[in-house]
Amino acid sequence: xxxxxxxxxxxxxxxxxxxxxxxxELKWPFIDEIFHLRQCATYCAHQFSKxxxxxxxxxxxxxxxxxYHHFLSAIGIQDSCxxxxxxxxxxxxxxxxxxxALSLVPTNxxxxxxxxxxxxxxxxxxxxxxxxxxxxLVVLPLLTVLKHRSLKGAVYANLAGFASLWLRQTNIVxxxxxxxxxxDKRKQKATSFYQQIHNFVxxxxxxxxxxxxxxxxxxxxxxxxxxxxxxxxxxxxxxQITLHLVQVFxxxxxxxxxxxxxxxxxxxxxKYVQFTVTGRKGLNLLLTIASxxxxxxxxxxxxxxxxxxxxxxxxxxxxxxxxxxxxxxTVSFIHAILAPAQYHCIGFVGHCYxxxxxxxxxxxxxxxxxxxxxxxxxxx
Length: 380
Description:
Blueprint: H1 3-25, H2 33-44, H3 60-74, H4 83-102, H5 109-116, H6 119-122, H7 131-147, H8 151-165, H9 172-186, H10 193-206, H11 212-228, H12 246-258, H13 260-263, H14 266-278, H15 283-302, E1 303-304, E2 310-311, H16 316-321, H17 328-356, H18 359-362, H19 364-370
Antiparallel strand pairs: 1-2
Helix pairs in contact: 1-4, 1-5, 2-3, 4-7, 7-8, 7-9, 8-9, 9-11, 12-17, 14-15, 14-17, 15-17
């Protein structure tokens, strides 16, 4: 038997062993699990009118958990709505449902394991959070339109997309993205970036019927926001929509890190230098300097701390270490280091996007797992 055929079963077996250890160690709800497990227990008791106002995401996870509880109970599993049982729902999602979804497009098992073992997602296989099934129901529409570039594909994709909105309401961003990918795949090819933009706009008008399912989901989302009085369930006061520009930097850094083999190639590095320094007779260098200044300003003034409050800090390092424990000189030094680092990440992603018009499509799974749609603040 080829190694490719063994890699998924081996991965699933190792993950199961890790899950056993994790469940033995995690005897109590982990952070926000206390809200999710408690709400799901309420649903398991068929008390669907009761809602914990501390929960900000839709009830899809608890409806799914309730169905899973009844299934386990029917086959004789005890404590079928307990923490271990509900956590196993995400475990099945990660090692069974997600690989099945990835099978929609021709690929090998090594790629599947590469995707499902992504660290930011893998952790949640052992917890009862929204991330795993939300990811599955976002990946499914994307792969559906890649396989079926037609009205049928659009309808199926939006049915899955609608289901994803019951896990995380911010998935409306990814439903829109799937529509963009579908139109992009159907448009006429062109070598010029501006010609590609033109062809994309023309294709939108040609394929207006295909876009109707996406418009339906968009309408339903707008109606929900209007009726709900905002995008957030539950505790709206402490979950206000705020512009979080630094989240874009986190996403770019994430993509850059996980595409390390791509940007270390000699060809890519040469094009990157031209893109950032030598191109357009020195104009790109001026744009790079201006970008450094802008990025430094954004990091310094628009990094968001807990509860959406802006702070004069430099993102994750200061958030972890504690802004008040650092001297002004240290803060300035971190600013000086982070600005070029973040520019490199954004510059690399931007360069690849303009050069190939495909970096976002190629790496959308990585972005999805990190949920960078929360540019306007976390939904959970």
